Amino acid sequence: MKLWVLRHGEAEQRANTDAERRLTAHGREQVLRSAAVLLGQPPQVILASPYVRAQQTAALVHEALGFAKPVQTVSWLTPDSDPQAVIAELDKLGVEEVLLVSHQPLVGNLVGLLEHGNYRHPAAMSTASLAQLEGEWPLAGLMTLSNLHHP
């Protein structure tokens, strides 16, 4: 399995709710730089948090890659989602190449858990950071972090 984990681009500081924060112009540029890493190796599916900034990030990647399938919005990719629950959902997907678009602290904790098998070493994921993990199964401690791109 090949798994990419993308943190949304830089977002506005203020909005009515955290879920409504939109990408800034700089955030859109960051996302496009990270999307370029995926050119020539597109995932089979793009899954995104329902939060506006993650939806905008996923849409930019979708367009940059010329991705045919629509982005799938899933409720289990919000900032405070449980990484173990995300792993369980990934296991149910039955696809080999997946892009997740989400938020901190989830993305850092998820990458750290998949790589190290615990929460003591979360990955440093700044805005629009893209982690690439590979392994036979999406299980804690059984994936290898093969690339961590910071735009």
UniProtKB/TrEMBL annotation:
Database matches in Pfam families: His_Phos_1
Alphabetical list of InterPro entries matching this protein: His_Pase_superF_clade-1, His_PPase_superfam, SixA
Protein origin, superkingdom: Bacteria
SUPFAM superfamilies referenced in this protein's UniProt entry, alphabetically: Phosphoglycerate mutase-like (SSF53254)
One GO term describing the cellular component: cytoplasm
Assigned keywords, A-Z: Hydrolase
Molecular function terms from GO: protein histidine phosphatase activity
Keyword Hydrolase: yes
Stated name of the protein: SixA-like phosphohistidine phosphatase
Organism of derivation: Pseudomonas wadenswilerensis
